[in-house]
Amino acid sequence: MHSFASIGTGSKNSQDNSASGKYPFFVRSQNIERIDSWSFDGEAVLTAGDGVGTGKVFHYVNGKFDYHQRVYRISDFLGGVSGKYFFYQFSRNFLARIELLTAKSSVDSVRMETIAGMEIPIPPRSEQDRIVVAIDDVSELVQSLKLLIRKKQSIKQGMMQELLSGRTRLPGFISPWKLVRLKSVLQFQVGFPFRSSEFSERPVGPRLVRNRDLRSDDSVVYYAGSYSEDYLVTNGDVLVGMDGDFSPCVWRLGIALLNQRVGRLRVGPNADATYLHYALATPLKEIEAETGATTVKHLSHGDVENIVITLPSVEEQRAIARALLDADIEIEHLSSRLRKTGCIKQGMMQELLTGRTRLPVEVAQ
Fold first, then answer.
1. Residue 206 lies in a domain
2. Exposure letters 101-119 (e unless 16+ CB within 10 A, then b)
3. Strand order in the sheet with 256-258
């Protein structure tokens, strides 16, 4: 790499930052801070030299900036090398290279010689530029989707604050809200301690809903034994994890069994479960926050059933739930599009940056 670029490090420390600084300040993090000084002006690629960001933090910048003493700057590109093209190649391959050289999956530092010795495939400049344009286009789409999702999430948060407090009423609703204890409108059903000897990773029965499954879907476990249908969960059920994170969620992954340490809201005629999914988020967080830092909090029947909230009529609950659910569905669709676009970007980079797929040369008319 030293044949087509120079490598240097910064001279600043983290405490040199300034929240109102005029220039970007690059530290060993993906977050870009601000500073009142600049030590470099031009096109450069930056990466962390040590810490948890080693091999994972990359920045492309073109202009005035300053940087931490343990941040490497690669710049002054020669021989027809595009800095942006190098950024895409370097950020895609560098972690694998240093893991290979150190024979470790967790790398906490990297030496300048490791960067200097890295080989980069370089096509003609015109092809580099076409590759950069293609990747930039999909990168801009990814960024615009992220910004749109954040905007929609902010709008939904504002809707929740207004609608769940009664400060804003949906058209047609004027009846006063009533103060109720939740045990008067619901029953909190706790899951069953199914036998672990009957768990299976093969789909030989209903899947189990465990506490961890409410936050991620990394691994799916099925239950091959006998069970009572009283514990069957279906789409639309509102579930609450009873260990750690108590945030309620709406189950949307098909028929499953309610395993222990997961609870379900079983509502009566005067409550809507989806409305309570939104309305209980804050009270359950408050219960969670009451736990000391060294104590593991376990949610109980009483914790949920003794919560006191103000409820509108069930008709207004359902109308509010539909409005918030529509907002959630829109965010989910955008999030799905973001994931697919991210996969397209990764596939495109894999093809274009290895030369397996070549972009055609534009012919002047």
1. yes
2. eeeeeebeebeeebbeebe
3. 199-200, 222-223, 207-209, 256-258, 232-233
Q: Residue 305: how many CA atoms within 13 Å on its side-chain side? A: 16
Same domain? 263 vs 206 = yes
Cβ-contact 62, 84 below 8 angstroms:
no
**pLDDT at residue 103, rounded to an integer:** 59
Q: DSSP readout, 35-67?
A: ES--SEEEEEEEEESBSTTTTT-EEEEEEEEEE
Q: How large is the average pLDDT for residues 120-130? A: 94
Q: Tell me: do 184 and 306 sit in the same domain.
A: yes
Predicted confidence (pLDDT) per residue in 19-33, tens digit: 999 999 999 999 999
pLDDT band at 171 (very low <50, low <70, confident <90, very high): very high
- Structure tokens, 19: 């929240």
Tokens of 44: 């450069």
- Taking the alpha carbons at both ends of the chain, their separation in whole angstroms is 38
The span from the CA of 24 to the CA of 17, in Å, is 9
DSSP letter for each residue of 293-320: TT---B--HHHHHT-EEEE--HHHHHHH
In a domain, 82, yes or no: yes
The CATH number given to whatever domain includes residue 273 is 3.90.220.20
Q: What is the spatial distance between Cα 185 and Cα 246, in angstroms, rounded to a whole number?
A: 20
Judge if 183 and 303 occupy the same domain. yes
| pLDDT band for position 79 (cuts 50, 70, 90) | confident
Which DSSP state fits 109? B
Q: For residue 306, what are the domain limits?
A: 178-311
Q: Look up the CATH number of the domain holding residue 159.
A: 1.10.287.1120
Q: Which long-range contacts (CB under 8 A, 24 or more apart) does 80-84 make?
A: 80/122, 80/124, 80/125, 80/128, 81/4, 81/5, 81/122, 81/125, 81/128, 82/125, 82/128, 82/129, 82/132, 83/43, 83/44, 83/45, 84/60, 84/132, 84/136
- How many structural domains comprise the chain? 3
